[in-house]
Design goal:
The chain has helices at 53-62, 65-71, 79-97, and strands spanning 13-18, 24-29, 33-40, 45-52. With 98 residues, it is an alpha+beta fold.
C-alpha cells in the first residue's frame, strides 16, 4: 500500500536535513495518513479510506464526504475518489429527477 491519500492524492515529498554545519542529507516527508470509515449519504454506504489528516479536516469542514466530493474538482482527486464522485453525482441526479 503506497503512502498516498486516497482522496486528495497527497503523497511523500523529499527534501534535505540541514545540519548546523550546513551538511545536507536526503530525507522524506511522509503524509499523516489515517484509516477512516466515511459515510456517504447519497450512496447509503460507508467507505473505508486511507486519508491524510488534513483532508479529513477538509471533509468535516465542507459537510461530509458527498459535499467534499461534489465541491472538489475532479482533476484534484485521486482516481478512486474521482470514481466515487461520479457515482455520487449520478445518484444525486437520479434523486433530483424523481
Amino acid at each position: 500500500m503506497s503512502r498516498k491519500c486516497e482522496l486528495t492524492g497527497k503523497s511523500v515529498m523529499t527534501g534535505n536535513n540541514v545540519s548546523h554545519a550546513n551538511n545536507k542529507t536526503k530525507r522524506r516527508f511522509l503524509p499523516n495518513l489515517v484509516n477512516v470509515t466515511l459515510l456517504s449519504e447519497a450512496l447509503d454506504q460507508s467507505i473505508r479510506l486511507r486519508v491524510a489528516a488534513s483532508a479529513l479536516r477538509t471533509v468535516e469542514h465542507r459537510g461530509g464526504l458527498d459535499a467534499f466530493l461534489m465541491k472538489e474538482k475532479e482533476a484534484n482527486l485521486s482516481p478512486k475518489a474521482a470514481d466515487m464522485r461520479r457515482k455520487v453525482a449520478q445518484k444525486l441526479a437520479e434523486k433530483e429527477a424523481a
